[in-house]
Specification:
Structural class: alpha+beta
Distance between the termini: 12 Å
Radius of gyration: 11 Å
Largest sheet: 3 strands, antiparallel
Number of helices: 1
Strand content: 25-35%
Strand order of the largest sheet: 1-2-3
Order of helices and strands: HEEE
């Protein structure tokens, strides 16, 4: 369910990429709980994160869900 929500949020934000293969999953701490995001690597690296990742430039950020 979370992956589908992340893809939906990215598409709503204008992302037109394609999900290929299995994502890598990463965990972020957030106010007493953990949330996770998804990363695909390939020709382009795609990151779906539940929080803003300030170390990434806007060019790399498709959406937060």
């Amino acid at each position: 369910m979370e992956l589908a929500d992340a893809v939906d949020a990215a598409r709503e934000a204008g992302w037109r990429g394609e999900v290929q293969g299995d994502p890598r999953i990463f965990v972020l701490p957030n106010e007493g709980e953990f949330q996770f995001g998804f990363v695909w690597t390939g020709t382009h690296t795609t990151v779906f994160a539940p929080l803003a990742l300030p170390w990434m430039t806007p060019k790399h950020v498709a959406a937060c869900y």
